[in-house]
Structures are given as structure tokens and as C-alpha cells.
Input
Amino acid sequence: MPGATDATAPVSCRICDGDVEEFLDLGRQPLSDRFPAPDDEGEEFFYRLGVGRCRTCTMVQLTEEVPRHLMFHEDYPYHSSGSSVMREHFAKAAQRFLATELTGPDPFVVEVGCNDGIMLGTIQAAGVRHLGFEPSTGVAEVARSKGMRIRTDFFEAATAMEVRAAEGPADVIYAANTMCHIPYLESVLKGADALLTPDGVFVFEDPYLGDIVAKNSFDQIYDEHFYLFSAGSVRAMAERFGFELVDVERLPVHGGEVRYTLARGGARTPTAAVGRLLADERDRKVTDLASLRAFTADVHKIRDDLVALLERLRAEGRRVVGYGATAKSATVTNFCGIGPDLVSFVCDTTPSKQNRLTPGRHIPVRPAAAFSDPYPDYALLFAWNHAEEIIAKEQEFQQSGGRWIRYVPEVHVT
Ligand code: DWN
Ligand code: SAH
Ligand code: ZN
Output
């Protein structure tokens, strides 16, 4: 039957209006960052998580859009500062801006999606003029309470123009793990055009399609991650909206990201790194439908292997808990059908997730201390992107005979 949720209905690209061909269906999914309380009687919101690629501009995108106010609001539970590696990563990013783009008289930097101020804290400490846009009022308040200047609003054309009128032009607009959350990028880049100085730059970093496909990290796909960027698709988007891709840098965080720098068309000379990454994407056929369909086959194998392993461990009477109630894990648990019968609880350091239930499958979330009380036989590492940090601090778990289960790039136990 035709209709809004018909899997076969053609979808138009949010960037260029071209045809989007779906290559992966991750099924019925809940909001990835809404953790219901055990006594919560309200119904959860579900949507169909389909992923496609635009035949014209190659942008990989979701085929259904979740309204933004359902995802980003006062109870948004993700606090960026929960990882020491990420704190260091963003301190470095800020220091780099302070040493390069922000050296003129009275420089001004705007961050889109500043969350709890993990990056702006360093800018503020240097006494540089800044403004963070953060629509999720709970995390925004954390940043504001530390003295950072925050506007609790979505960044888009209208709000950016208001800032330009009130505060003058910005030298840098920065967004980490936020641009891929925004379906309406035309409005965002219109806002950037209004707000930036003539030589200003828009720098953003997000999970990289090339890494997602290479590592089979299908859990990077969920409601908030509307786009999976590649250098090719970002270049096409930039050009369509009057910008030019002038630099790219691969980053190791969150399982592999790229930091893209956009400038106004013709304002800066693109670095050699741009040409190299574009050539690498062509060689590896990153956005070819055949590669994306091969990724889909790998994702199905991961699901089958993971469920078989967890069912075997349950039959053997082993205790398995999850580590890190990530947004990513909503995709894994709901796509694979993993509930409290297979994973008894998920431990997490974030107070706003604790004593709640995971989205959709309702696995209890417990504080970090529950992990060692007593240690389980197996821990399913949902926060695999923070593996180094976590495995280093949880050495006692392995010394006590515990073992880690991972599912990217394939299911394996260590
Ligand atoms: O893009 C996004 C990224 C930046 O953050 C957002 N859409 C939502 C969120 O995604 P996520 O939840 O998948 O991100 P993380 O950083 O993988 O989440 C890690 C989770 O694990 C947090 O809930 C904190 C927790 N954690 C923990 O319990 N012990 C993390 C570490 C490092 C730990 O040692
Ligand atoms: N930059 C942080 C937070 C990433 S989570 C980090 O890298 O850890 C994504 C954030 O973007 C959320 O805090 C969400 O509230 C915010 N966000 C979503 N849409 C936005 C928009 N249009 N403008 C500004 N922030 C937005
Ligand atoms: Zn397109």
C-alpha cells in the first residue's frame, strides 16, 4: 500500500532533490536518546530506520525524518564531557582555533550543538568572544552555569541572522557531531553565509561513511544521525549552497570521523588533503551502491552472529551485561531483538540515563558501580568507540576472568 511509511516509495534527497535509493532497512526503532522511567506509562515514539543514497549527489541519508523537538529537548541525556578522551580532543580543537583562525582583533566563534560546553570551555578560558547554540536546555544549562555564553535555540538561517545583526560577523562556526543531525542543511548554510566574515570558515566533524562501511559500524545509524557524510557528498553539498570544501582531516574519535572545513566559494585554496580523500573514496568506491549493499550483507551477518552468541551464553547460564547505554546501542538492541532476557542490564556513568530503561527493548540502566558488583561473565561493549579508555580502567574485570564482546567490525570475544 502506498503511504508515508511505504518502504518502496521513492524519497527525494534533502540536499539536491535527486532520487534516494534505499540500501538498508534497520526496522522499527524508538528515539535513541529517550530512556523511559520504569513507571513511565507514556507510549514510546517509533519510526522506520531506512538508509539510502542519492543517485545524483551521493549523500547517504535516512529515508524518514524524526521531528527535531522529539530528539532535542530539556531531557536530552547525552553529556559530551563523560569521556576523558573526548575532553582532550575538544580542548585540542579549541587550541588550534585559538592559534589560527582566532588571532585577529576581537575574534568571535560560534559553536553549533555545544552541549555541556566541552569545547567552548577552552575558548572561554582564553577570554575569546563566543556563542554556543544548544537547543537541549538541560545540557545547555550545564555550559551556561560554567559561565559560557549560550543561546538555547536551533541554529538555522533565521537564528543565525539574528546573531549577525546583534553581534557582528563570526570568524569561525564550528559543529562537532551536530551537522549530521540536521536534515535542513540548506537553512544552516544560509545562516552560515549570513554570519561568517568574508574569509570565515565553517568547520564541522562527523562520523565518516568511509569508516562506517570499513568497520561495519552500522550502529552509527539512528534517528539523530540523519546524514552519513563522505568528502564527495560534502563537497557537492557545499557547492550547491555557495561554499567550497577547502580542507579535510581524518580523526580517530567515535570510530573514525572527518573534520571538514568549508569557506566561501573561491575564498581559499583547497588543500591537497581534499583531493587525496576524494581520490581514495573513488578508489574504494565508498558511495557505490554495490559497496553499500555489501555493507548491508555484513550487517545482517553481525545480527545473526550476535544473537546466536548471546543465546548460547544464556543457555550456558552465563551472565552478560551491556557497557555504555549509547544512542548507538538503540539500533543494535532493536534491530537484533536484544532485551533483558539476553543482557541483564547496561551500566553507564551518566546520571540522566541511570535507573531508566533502554529505548524500545527496556533493558535496565544501572550506575557504573553495578558493573563490578559482582563482575559479569561477559560485557557487551556498546561504547566500543571508547574501548581504549574503558578497557584501560576496567582491567580488573578481565583479570577476574571476564570477557568483552564486540560486534564491530564483526562479532568477537576478547
Ligand atoms: O552523535 C552523538 C554522539 C556524539 O553522542 C549524539 N547523537 C549522541 C551521542 O551518541 P552515543 O550515545 O552513541 O555516544 P557515546 O559517546 O558513544 O556514548 C558513550 C556512553 O557510554 C555515554 O552514555 C557515557 C557512557 N560511558 C560510560 O558509561 N563509561 C562512557 C565512558 C567513556 C565510560 O567510561
Ligand atoms: N558537540 C557535542 C554534542 C554532540 S550531540 C559533541 O560532539 O559531543 C548533538 C548536539 O546537537 C545535541 O546537544 C543537540 O541538542 C544539538 N543540536 C541538534 N540540532 C541542532 C541545531 N539545529 N542547532 C544547534 N544544536 C543542535
Ligand atoms: Zn542529492
Summary: Residues 290-413 form a domain with the Rossmann fold fold (CATH 3.40.50.720). The CA atoms of residues 377 and 401 lie 7 Å apart. The chain has 13 helices and 18 strands.
